[in-house]
Specification:
Elements: E1 18-19, H1 22-32, E2 40-43, H2 51-58, E3 61-65, H3 68-77, E4 83-87, H4 95-100, E5 106-111, H5 117-125, E6 131-139, H6 140-147, H7 157-165, E7 166-174, E8 179-180, E9 187-194, H8 205-217, H9 223-226, H10 233-239, H11 252-265
Parallel strand pairs: 2-3, 2-5, 3-4, 5-6
Antiparallel strand pairs: 1-8, 6-9, 7-9
Helix pairs in contact: 5-7, 8-11
């Protein structure tokens, strides 16, 4: 049994670990650097560690929360002028509609639940055009995968697909002791800034996703095997890609070249 914090019992099914270290909180809020009146949405505000300072800085905050007990707390603590609560699952939330109704692009922040972090990142990538930047706390292992370079052990599908959409930087680590209950892993803060339209040079995003997924689907196999049915020997020769190499040796630019070649051949 996890000891209740401020009367609330952390729910395992929601991946709840509440940030309690005031120094870390100040450091995160400083990194977010929200300005008065700037549209901002917090995913999973929990017990409000970031919520209060963000409201103080921005004047108004949107939050997406699934836990009804925490929603009730938020309603008791803040006025409608200070906070707009969107009750529901962040994996299904339409961030695009929120961005469309805001004056300016959104800042998106949050301590993302470890158990849904990867699908949530892909969901958020769909709304990149309406986002100014995103600052998240995630499991350090996930952040390392997001920012990894080719030939690094952490390099894979997650990193390639997010690096296509965003400029990303790992900011700093957050130790387990900064939370209650303390997780078994170290966390990290990462910033994602959507790339300009001119930087997205793939002709078919869905095809890029297919190529990347196939290349990393069987990591021990060579590209000749993983991309079978997508790229033939003639394609490897035309692109100057060694079919005897593995997916983790290819750069983002290589994956885009393969996808664009295949799109032109279709």
């Amino acid at each position: 049994m996890i000891r209740p914090l401020d009367g609330h019992l952390a729910r395992k099914r929601f991946g709840q670990n509440f940030l309690v270290d005031q120094n870390i909180i100040r450091k995160i809020v400083s990194a977010i650097a929200v300005k008065p009146g700037e549209p901002i949405v917090e995913i999973g505000p929990g017990l409000g560690a970031l919520t209060a300072p963000l409201i103080a800085a921005a004047g108004h905050l949107h939050v997406v929360e699934i836990d009804r007990d925490l929603i009730a707390r938020l309603k008791e603590t803040y006025t409608p002028e200070q906070i707009t609560i969107h009750e529901g699952d962040a994996l299904k939330f339409d961030f695009g509609a929120l961005a469309a109704g805001s004056e300016g692009k959104l800042k998106v922040v949050g301590n993302l639940p470890y158990n849904i972090s990867t699908p949530l990142l892909f969901h958020l990538a769909e709304f990149a055009t309406g986002v100014k930047e995103m600052t998240f706390m995630l499991q350090r292992e996930v952040v390392d995968r997001m920012v990894a370079d080719p030939d690094e052990e952490a390099y894979g599908r997650l990193g390639v697909m997010l690096q296509y959409r965003f400029h990303m930087a790992k900011l700093f680590d957050v130790p387990p002791g900064a939370f209650h209950p303390a997780p078994k892993v170290t966390s990290a803060i990462v910033r994602l800034v959507p790339k300009a339209a001119g930087e997205l040079d793939c002709d078919d995003d869905a095809l890029l996703a297919k190529v990347v997924t196939a290349a990393f689907g069987q990591r021990r196999k060579t590209l000749r095997n993983t991309l079978k049915g997508i790229l033939d020997d003639g394609g490897f020769d035309a692109l100057g890609v060694d079919p005897g190499k593995r997916g983790e040796t290819l750069s983002l630019a290589d994956f885009v070249r393969i996808a664009n070649y295949c799109a032109a051949k279709a």
